[in-house]
Design brief:
The structure holds two protein chains of two kinds.
Chain A lengths: L24 E10 L2 E11 L4 E5 L6 H8 L10 E4 L2 E3 L5 H7 L1 E4 L11 H5 L1 H5 L8 H14 L15 H23 L4 E5 L7 H16 L3 E5 L3 H7 L2 E6 L2 E7 L5 H9 L18 E9 L6 E6 L3 E6 L8 H6 L6 E6 L5 E2 L5 H6 L2 E4 L3 H5 L6 H5 L8 E2 L2 E2 L1 H14 L16 H13 L5 E5 L7 H16 L3 E5 L3 H7 L2 E6 L2 E7 L5 H12 L14
Parallel strand pairs in A: 3-8, 3-9, 6-7, 7-8, 13-20, 13-21, 16-19, 19-20
Antiparallel strand pairs in A: 1-2, 1-4, 4-5, 9-10, 11-12, 11-14, 14-15, 17-18, 21-22
Helix pairs in contact in A: 6-7, 15-16, 17-18
Chain B lengths: L8 H32 L7 H10 L1 H15 L7 H18 L4 H25 L4 H20 L4 E2 L3 H9 L1 E2 L2 E2 H19 L1 H11 L1 H6 L4 H27 L1 E2 L8 H11 L10 H20 L5 H22 L8
Antiparallel strand pairs in B: 1-4, 2-3
The chains are: A alpha/beta, B mainly alpha.
Chain lengths: 543, 332
Amino acid sequence: MTLSSGQAGHDPSTDPGAPRALPVLSVKNFSKTFGGARALQNVSFDVMPGEVHGLLGKNGSGKSTLVKILAGFHTPDEGGSLFFNGEKVSLPVRGGDARRLGMAFVHQNLGLVPSLTVLENLRVVQLTGGGRSFINWAAEEAAAVGALKRFGLDLDPHERVDRLSPVQRALLAIVRAFEEIEAARAITGKPGLVLLDEPTPFLPASGVQQLFSLVRSITAAGCSVIFISHDIDEVMEITDRITVLRDGRQSGELDRKDATHEKIVEMIVGQSMSRAGHIKRDPASLPVYARFRDLAGQMLQPSNFHVGKGEILGLTGLIGSGYEEVPYLAFGARPASGGTIQIAGEQAFDQVTLTPKAAIDRGFALLPGDRQGASGVDSLSIVDNMFLPDVGRFFRGGWLRNRAMIDEAHILGTQYEVRPNDPYLKLSALSGGNAQKVLIARWMNRSPHLLMLDEPTQGVDVGTRQQIFSALRKAAAEGMSIICASSEAEQLADICDRVLVFAKGRICHELSGDALTKEGISEACYASAALPHSNHISQRAAP
Amino acid sequence: MNDTAKTGPSASSRRHLLRLFERYALLLVWVIIIALFSAAMPSSFFSWGNFSIMFASYAPAALLALAIIVPLTAGDYDLSVGATLTLSASTIGVLNVWHQMPILLVLLIVILMGVVVGLVHALFIIYFRVPSLVVTLGSTSVMSGLVQWMTNSSTIGGIDNSLIMAAVGYRLFGIPYAFYYAILAALIMWYIFDYMPLGRRLLFVGRGREVARLNGISVDKVRLGALIMSAVLSSAAGILYAGVLGSADPYSGLNFLLPAFAAAFLGATTIQPGRFNPWGAIVAVYFLATGITGLSMLGIPLWVTNVFNGGALILAVTISQITRGREASDIG
């Protein structure tokens, strides 16, 4: 694949003007250990001036740990060092250093303030910076207009950011980052670097192209870009070189011209042995419990699927592929744009008008991924959190039986191994894993017919993870239907009987039996992402 | 696993003592200031007569503090309770004295008016999603204006004697009935807050709206109920106020707003620390009342009252913020 666009990428190997010897960014021997787990092991790579450097790897490969070290959130283990234009950067990276040297980050959430204008967002550093007693709005506006014009962005500086399209927002964030490193270059005289952390999952194909042309104009100015994405085709299109991480190690570095789709997938997924998994049941042997027809949401295109009675159904895909919406849509937690559910032997009912209350009455349960914001209340006690949906059960004879609640909470705590098992404790006093056990106990105790989970083991330690898995398997064996949305292939391979892989809002693979392995799932995720961009991808509104 | 195993018995009993102290610290401080004022004015301050007057005259404020904690628990502010009280008292004056309507009918009308006030608040807060602070601040001004219009800004005397008798005429242990109405309201609220599922729903709606919604709680209905409840209780406080004064005063009711708020927050530091709770609110109202009564009997000028109330509000919120640490509920 070659760059065909007019303002082609800056190729450091052929450009005589680029100082080949001195990389803009040089990462040497980064390792990071959390507790006993090695998240990153001896990772080294260079980013040359004018280069777009791709960083690939699936969830848990150490990619985000690396980004967090560069952004200064983590300190790497002893022995790692970082150079920027030849200057040694003290670790952990301080925000001031990054700004002074000319390193800027655009994270997936973009870091824009939606209720403020384009101008205010673009010039936030200058407008809020110290040492000035007066804001010259005319000058600020001129500077903003200049920056937008330089990149051919047709934006009204007085438009509010929440009225922009997702593409415009992404472009604005990148322009701001570029302005920031250019401001540093004006002082240091050296090129800077912009790190783009998954900027594309929610963009339509045309938006991705706009973003790429912006990236090309940044490299044409001699600066460098680190581009992180799950989308192999995008990475192959825009980058000059690619570093792939797997299980915390560098599994390879490729020049774009040597890269093929297959080669990259192999480097990402690897050949590691699948662990002896659980005994999967044959999904065909299970009677259907619920059938979803044309279920659709903001990203999810009308999809048809079913879950068997006693089946654990996994949903996965790359970020933004729509699978993560399914539990919320099916529970009525987010409005579905269409679709029906039919429970075995019952009338089908409309998904659009479903409310969480009605879903609970039908025997559905949802454990959201956002534990603190949507699942449990940290400032309230374990017992209150456990019996939130069915506190009415303890109201007998005109009296809330607090004693009975405490006793039952204690029993459930023992059963689900909550530590410490003190029902009066606030949820905030527990570790993430133990808090999750409390919330799982809440729903399991109601014996729902259909339990839906979103990333149930996020921020949960390995031991607790196994406890949660065994609780899920036991419930499924007793006939509970479970839908689990997760980005972790290994976890899905461990617990599911069947996995649906989503891409661009549609179901594109169904894995079960021997095909259901960690590698199989990862491969399917990346293979589906290679499908041609569909034109009907709905854009996700900003959160 | 044994819960107490990880902390030694001494550490756990020390923590228990600390918790006990936290719960009753305000009561202790109250006793101390009573002792101080009594020492300063043994004959005038430390008399049953003085206390019984204080208990009765602050009963409307106590009811108002109870009114506030309902929406506060559900995560909404109601700044209009003082104005609702005034509107209610003035309506009693206008209808009962000027229009000669029977007192029971008037009381019924006033309570219904409270429901209407709550519904109007809910319309803007829940349906149009206007912040509760803004809506109830605005409605305070609206109601104050209406009161001036309907009373011609004058105090209306001559309210039906049976209302006055019911408020301050009859006494139990020397304390007028007015006080016991507030206690009764606290008792009912305590029952709802602690012994009915409704109380838990209220709490979860206030602490985590999304959590509550995803657990099948009708968040909007709970908030609506809380707003109606606070307006109705404020109207009831207005009835009590008219009874205690024997007249309808179009202005002074607004002065209850600040002590009532201070009491609601101060009350959240005691009895059940970290939660707005009815007994805490009652204790806090009478704690503030004791301070103001004592200071004014010492002959301290009127402006000190304002300083005392305002200072107590800020101090109360600061203390509750410290005791509750990071877990401040998002009210808004």
